[in-house]
Amino acid sequence: MTLEPIAVTTPSRVPENAKPASWERKHLLGLEDLSREEIESILATAESFGEISTRSRKKVPALLGRVVFNLFFENSTRTRTSFSLAAKRLSADTQDFTASASSLSKGESFIDTAKNIEAMGADVMVVRHPTPGAPHLLAQHVGASIINAGDGAHEHPTQALLDILTIRRAKGRIEGLTVGLVGDISHSRVARSNIWGLTKLGARVILCGPPTLVPRRLEQLGCEIAYRLDDVLPRLDVVNVLRIQFERDQRAVFPSIAEYFRLFGMTQERIRRGKPDLLLLAPGPINRGVELTPEVADGPHSAILDQVTNGLAVRMAVLYLLSGKSDAHGPTLD
Ligand code: CP
Predict the structure, then answer these.
(1) Are 131 and 151 in contact (CB under 8 A)?
(2) Nearest residue to 283 via CA among 244, 247, 248, 322
(3) Domain ranges of the chain
(4) Cα(146) to centroid of ligand 1, in Å?
(5) How far does the centroid of ligand 1 lie from the alpha carbon of residue 243, in Å?
(6) Do the Cβ atoms of 145 and 71 come closer than 8 Å?
(7) CATH assignment of 16-155+310-322, among 3.40.50.1370, 3.60.15.10, 3.40.50.720, 3.90.1570.10
(8) Model confidence over 134-154: pLDDT tens digits?
(9) Which atom of ligand 1 is closest in space to residue 149's alpha carbon?
(10) Spacing, Cα 291 to ligand 1 middle (Å)
(11) Which residues surround ligand 1 with Cβ inside 6 Å?
């Protein structure tokens, strides 16, 4: 009996224009470090990769043989799953590390844990940690590329990149727009990364919330501060509503949730008083009835689920750009 040869299909190709002319960085630790040109390169690469997710076969061989580890020391729905899916779409091997089920409970350190994971062949580590600077520390101790997936209240660069991509897709530009970040700015890594990214691309950023949650010192980053949403609402092209992070601060930072909602909640009434094309973003998880109503979350101004879709493209772009820079396991891909 003769065996039929196994059919080998030609893998789908990475879009021609996916790779910018030069990309030198090995890690993505925050948007504070990035130039305007680097941010634009990631956005352009994400635009190219967005197309892959519309194909019937949503996979390209760009990172075939590469290993991407998710190291999450805090809970996550969107960031962890979209990094995992993004790596799979690029044909990388992916592995999740769950801190609560690990040998950290037996006294193993953060660095020793990461070194053990690197010894299994990790080329890229996607790290979320409650301590600001944890991914930066890791970058000094392992050879793999490190991606910051949120470090305490410091930065969440891929969230800001997907927010910016979502705004640019809806508005056609970032330069000259006025973007309101409303809510718990104090504890928000999303706010900090958005401030860096948006101001570098020429947007005006207004931080708005109760004085206990909006530190005046953030004016130094080139932002305007407002304590009354209704005063600034008519000027906003985009409003990004940030969750109150009750888990990070047990103090009574405002009298009650009802009072917060009355002053800062995005309602249909406030949508009506905003610009006709006001774009509403929220990084998630959202708390319906606290920072926005269900009607607003699900309404025509909301781009909340577009953010999630764009997050996948952004994370594919970041993995693609950084993956060739790891010196952990021999020659680079590019
Ligand atoms: N926006 C965001 O970071 O969501 P997760 O905490 O679910 O990852």
Answers:
(1) yes
(2) 244
(3) 16-155+310-322, 157-308
(4) 18
(5) 11
(6) no
(7) 3.40.50.1370
(8) 999 999 999 999 999 999 999
(9) 3
(10) 16
(11) 76-79, 150, 159, 283-285
pLDDT value of residue 12: 57
| Model pLDDT for residues 271-306, shown as the tens digit of each residue | 999 999 999 999 999 999 999 999 999 999 999 999
- Ligand 1 nearest-atom number relative to CA 79: 8
Separation CA 296–CA 268 (nearest Å)? 6
Q: How far apart are CA 293 and CA 289, in angstroms?
A: 5
Q: What is the DSSP string of 1-39?
A: -PPPPPP-PPPPPPPTT-S-S----S-B--SSS--HHHH
Q: How many residues does the chain have?
A: 334
Domain 157-308 carries which CATH code?
3.40.50.1370
Closest of 13, 12, 40, 23 to residue 321, by C-alpha: 23
How far does the centroid of ligand 1 lie from the alpha carbon of residue 184, in Å? 15
Render pLDDT for 91-102 as a digit per residue (tens, 0 to 9): 999 999 988 889
Mutate to test the pocket of ligand 1, among 77, 181, 307 (most ligand atoms within 8 A of CB): 77
CA-CA distance, 189 to 130, in Å (whole number)?
Answer: 11
Q: How far does residue 286's CA lie from ligand 1's centre (Å)?
A: 10
**How many C-beta atoms surround the C-beta of residue 112 within 10 A?**
13
Confirm if 79 and 155 have CB atoms less than 8 A apart: no
Q: Specify the ligand 1 atom closest to the Cα of 80.
A: 8
Distance CA 199, CA 220 (A): 12
Cα(221) to ligand 1 centroid in Å equals: 24
One fold for 16-155+310-322 and 157-308: yes
- Tell me the C-alpha distance between 55 and 270, whole Å: 39
Nearest-atom number in ligand 1 for the CA of 284 is 1
